[in-house]
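Supplementary material to the annual report.
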Amino acid sequence: MTNVAALLMRDMRLAVRLGGGAPIGVLFFLIVVTLMPFALGPDLALLRRIGPAILWLGALLASLLALDRLFAADHEDGSLDLILMSRLPLEVTVAVKALAHWLTTGLPLVIAVPVLALFLDLEPRAMAAVALTLLVGTPALTCIGAMGAALAVTLRRGGLILAVLVLPLTIPVLIFGVAAANAAVVGPMPFGPPFTILCALSLISFVIGPFAAAAALRHGLD
Amino acid sequence: MTIIDLANPSRFLAFTARVLPWLVAATVCAFAVGLYLAALAPDDYQQGATVKIMFIHVPNAWLAMFCWTVMTVAALGTLVWRHPLADVAAKAAAPLGAAFTFLCLLTGSLWGRPMWGTYWVWDGRLTSVLVLFLMYLGVLALWRTVEDPSRAARAVAILTLVGAINLPIIKFSVDWWATLHQPASVLRLGGPTIHRSILVPLLVMGLAFMLLFLTLHLAAMRNEILRRRVRTLRLMQAQAGA
Amino acid sequence: MILDLGPYAGFIVVAYAAALAVVAALIAWIVADHRAQQRTLKDLEARGIGRRSAAKEVA
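Predicted assembly:
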C-alpha cells in the first residue's frame, strides 16, 4: 500500500469510529435544520423558499464543527509529529487528510440532503440543485478550513478561533453555492454562471488550502 | 542609511525618535488644511451637505485596505526574508487597520441614514468592508491567542497572506451578490465624475489620514520593540532566578 | 465660521466627532503604552537587569 493510500485509509477509519466525528457531523446537520422551523415558523411556503439557504448554512456549520479534529486529534497523541517526518511532502499529506475528512464528513452531508430536503418541502429539482452545489462546495469548505485547523492546532479550545478565522473566507463559497441552488429552482437567472464560479472557487481552494495549512503546520510546530 | 540598517532595532528606535516629530507636524498641518477645505466644499446636488461625511468615510476605506497591504508585505518579510522588524510592523498595523475599518463602517452607516433611510444597507461596498473588519478581528484574536511572539508572527503572517489572496475574491463575490439582490442602482458619489471642488478636499484628507497612519504605525512599532525588550529582560530575570 | 450643514447636520457632526474620538483613543493608547514600557524598562534597569549591549557600552 502506498503512503498516500495508507494515510487515507487510516484517517477514514479513525473518523468513522465512535468519537471520530463523522456520524456526529450529519447529526449536527440534522439538528440545525430541525431548529430552523422553530425559529422561523412552520410555514412550508417560507421554508421551501429559503430551503436551499438553510441547507447550505447547516452544511457550512456542520463542516466547521468537524474541522477541529482534522489535526488536533493527531497532535494530541503525537502522531502528527510522526506524519510530519514522513517522506511525503507536507502539502500532499494535508491534501490527503483533507480528502479523508471530506469523504467522511462532507460527503455524508451531501447524502443527507434528500432526507433533510423533505423537512423543508423542497421539490426534487431544488433538492438535486442543493445536493450538487454542496457536492462541489463542501470540498472547498474542507480545504479552507484545513488552513484554520492548522493554525489552531496548538491552541487549547482552538475550535472557536478556527471558526472566526475560517468563516469570512468561506463567504464566497456560500454566496455562489446558494445562488446556484436558488437559480436552479427560482430562475430566471441561469444555473450555469454561479455554478461555474463555485467550481472555480473549489479548485482554487484545493491549491491554497493545503499549501497554507502545510506552512502553518511547519511554522507552528517547531 | 539603508533599509537593511534599519533592521537593527536600536537603530530603528533612533530613526523613529528623529522622524516622529516631523511626521506629527506634517499630519497636523495636513488635517488643518483638509478640514478647512472640507468645511468650504460645496453641497452635492444629490446629497446636500452630507457629502462632507465622505471626506472621512473614503480615506478610512483607503486606509482599511492599505493597512492590510502593509500587513501582507510584513507577512512576506516574516515568512520569506525573515526581516526582524517585519513581525513588529505587522503587529503594530493590525489594531490601526481594525480602527480605520471600524470608522469606515461607522461613517458609512451615518452617511447611509440620510441617503437610504436606514443605518445599515447590505450593499456591495459596505458589506465587503464589514467582512474585512471581521478578518481584522480574526487577526487580532490570533495575535492574542498564541503566546510566543515569533510563532504568533508566523501564524498571523500565513493568515494575512491567505486573507490577502481572498480579499479580491470576497470583494468580487459580495459585489456579485449585492447586484443579485438589489437590481436598483446604488447612489454614486456626486454623479458620473467627482467635481474638483469635492475631489481636492477628499485628496487632502486622504493624505492627512495616510500621514496619521504612518505616524501612529511608527509610534506603535516603537512601543512593540520596547515591549519585546521588557519580555526578554523578564525572561532573563526569571532564568537567573533573581 | 458658520457652516450651513443642511437638514442632516446631526449625522455630519456625529461622524466627525466619532472620527475624532477614535483617532484620539488610538493616540492615547499609543502614548500610554509608550510611557508604560519606558517605566518598566527603567524599573528593570534599576534592579540591575540590563541588556547585554548596554552592559557592553559601560564596560
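The CA atoms of residues 40 and 46 of chain A lie 8 Å apart.
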